[in-house]
Amino acid sequence: MASSKPAVRHPSHNHPLRSHKAQAEEEIICSGCDLDLIGAAFKCTKSECDYFLHKSCFELPRENCHKSHPEHPLTLLYSPTYESSSFACDACGEYGSGFSYNCSICKYDVHVGCVSMPETVEREGHAHPLTLLYRSPYQNGLIFNCDECHDNVPDNLWSYYCKKCDYGTHLHSCAVEEEPKRGGGGSGNTSRNSGGRSSAASDLSAMLKAQREMERMQIELDMAMQSAKIAKKSRKHMLKMI
């Protein structure tokens, strides 16, 4: 029986899409941001095509004037334009292969999930909200270490920071607790809604961390396969010369 839901088009895909309510047990991955997909979504109308998008990814604006890159607007790309078919995110430093925001002039690339990170988050156990920074809070060559994992945070990457306490963390996995308390989101105060915001940020951080690791492993595998092909061609060439 044909679905009564209207079909829509999206420039990232050749086939029409139809609205879909994604369930956790379906274990769907968004074809845009490459993260787990639960809730409002769009799916390809072709049964043999495994293409899904978060509703939020479907609705991403084609251009984003982001504070992290005031020199030029960022353009939404549906796939990386680089020869490697991947990009290194200038926000978190991890690789990506799905949707991104890009400045072609500056070769500046950001995951769509990183672009959406809130300007403040609250970490349980810390008295003040942490503010999103687009580069190291330190100057004069001082090294900025994450106060949770104690690893170095490169100067050019984003982080969350409390100036009052000189306390800072990595953008994703260290910014909030692994399992923060879930508070009621009815206060209407967007900057201090600690339960709802921290929970959402934690979920996003966990998904991003897992996905970046998978992407890194895939890229390493691709590079290894390319090296093997080159070595095989070299051996054949040497044998012909003998």
TrEMBL record:
Keywords carried by this UniProt record: Repeat
Residue numbers spanned by region Disordered: 1-20, 178-205
Biased composition (Low complexity): 189-202
Superkingdom, taxonomy of origin: Eukaryota
Ranges for domain DC1: 11-57, 67-115, 125-175
InterPro entries noted in UniProt: C1-like_sf, DC1
Biased composition (Basic residues): 7-20
PANTHER family hit by this protein: GENOME ASSEMBLY, CHROMOSOME: A05 (PTHR46288:SF23), PHORBOL-ESTER/DAG-TYPE DOMAIN-CONTAINING PROTEIN (PTHR46288)
Name listed for the protein in its UniProt record: BnaC04g03640D protein
Organism of origin: Brassica napus
